[in-house]
Amino acid sequence: MLLTGGSSGIGAELLKALVARRCRVIVWSRRPPTIVSDLVEHEAVDLADTVALDAALDQLTANHPDLSVIINNSGTGEQGRFLTTDPKELDERADTQIAVNLTAPIHIANRLFKPLAEKPSAMIVNNTSGLAVAPTANNPIYCATKAGLRSFTLSMRYQAESHAPNLKIVEILLPVVATPMTTQYKTRKASVEKATQRIVKGLEKGEDEIWVGAAAVLRGVSAIAPGVARWVVKKLAK
Ligand SMILES: NC(=O)c1ccc[n+]([C@@H]2O[C@H](COP(=O)([O-])OP(=O)(O)OC[C@H]3O[C@@H](n4cnc5c(N)ncnc54)[C@H](OP(=O)(O)O)[C@@H]3O)[C@@H](O)[C@H]2O)c1
Asked: Which of 70, 64, 69, 89 is nearest to 78 (CA)?
C-alpha cells in the first residue's frame, strides 16, 4: 500500500492504524514517519516537485508490482488574502498547493489506474475535505484544489465502475481536525484519533465517500440546500 503524508497529523494516525492491522505501507513524504516498524518503508518525496514525483513513480512501479492500494493523503493549506499579500507570494503559495493537493494525486492516478485496474482487487483513496463542498474566504486555492480533487475522484470512480469493476475509488471528506495544519484555527476541531477511526471504519465497510463528523452534517445540508451549506461554512470560518 502507498500512503502519502504519513509523517504528520491524519496520515501519521492512519499509518499507526494500518500497521496495527499488519499492512505493509510505503510512505511518501518529505519527513520520515515517527512510527518504527519493519512493515513501513519511507521514501523522501516532495510532491510539489513533479520531476521527483515522476522518478518516485518509476521506482514504485518497478519495485512494487504487487501494489494494490493508494491513499493520497498529503496536503498543504495556506491562506490567500488578496489585499494584504504580495502577488508573487500568492503565486508561489498557489503553485505549491495545486502541485501537492491536486497535480500529485492526478499524476499518481494517471500512472497507476491501469495497473491497479488489472488486479483482482484494488483501491485508490483521495483525502479531499468538507471545504471541497463549501469554501471559506481566506483559503481560496486550498478550497479550489480540494473541489478539483473531489471532481477528479468522481470522474475516476465513473471510469472504474464501467471499465474496472475491481478498482474501488474512495473519497474522504473531513471536517476541521486538530493536526499541525490547523493549529492557527480557533474553531471547534475533531480529534485526529476519532477522525482516523471513522476513516478506517469507512474503508473497512467499503464506503465510496467517507464523510467524517461535522462534514457528514454538511453533506446533509448541502444535499437539501447548497446555498445554506455555503453560508454556514463562510460564517463559521470567519
Ligand atoms: N486537518 C484538517 O482539518 C483537515 C480537514 C480536511 C482535510 N484535510 C486533509 O487531510 C490531509 C492531511 O492533513 P493533516 O491535517 O494531517 O495535515 P498535516 O499534519 O500538516 O500533514 C500533512 C501531510 O502532508 C504531507 N505533505 C505536505 N506537503 C508535502 C509535499 N510537498 N510533499 C510530500 N508530502 C507533503 C506532510 O509531509 P511532509 O511535511 O513530511 O512532507 C504531512 O505528512 C491533507 O490532504 C488535508 O488537506 C485536513
From this structure: 89
Say yes or no: CB of residue 48 within 6 Å of ligand 1: yes
Average pLDDT rounded to a whole number, residues 109-138: 97
Residue nearest to atom 45 of ligand 1 (CA): 75
CA dihedral 224, 230, 233, 238 (to 10 degrees): -150
- Tens digits of residue pLDDT in 57-108: 999 999 999 999 999 999 999 999 999 999 999 999 999 999 999 999 999 9
Rg of the chain taking only CA atoms, in angstroms: 17
Domain 2-236: what homologous superfamily?
A: NAD(P)-binding Rossmann-like Domain (3.40.50.720)
Kindly state if the Cβ of 68 falls inside 6 Å of ligand 1.
Answer: no
pLDDT digits (tens, 9 = 90+) for 30-62: 999 999 999 999 999 999 999 999 999 999 999
Q: Which residue has the cell 498547493?
A: 97
For residues 208 and 213, give the distance between their C-alpha atoms in angstroms, rounded to a whole number.
Answer: 16
208 to 7, 70, 133: CA distances (angstroms): 25, 14, 16
10: Cβ below 6 Å to ligand 1? yes
Q: pLDDT tens digits, residue range 157-186?
A: 999 999 999 999 999 999 999 999 999 988
Which residues fall within 8 angstroms of residue 215, CB to CB, at 6 or more apart?
Answer: 129, 130, 133, 173, 174, 175
- C-alpha of residue 57 to centroid of ligand 1, in Å: 20
Domain boundaries, the chain: 2-236
Q: For the segment 227-236, what is each residue's pLDDT rounded down to a tens digit?
A: 999 999 999 8
Residue 188 CB less than 6 A away from ligand 1: no
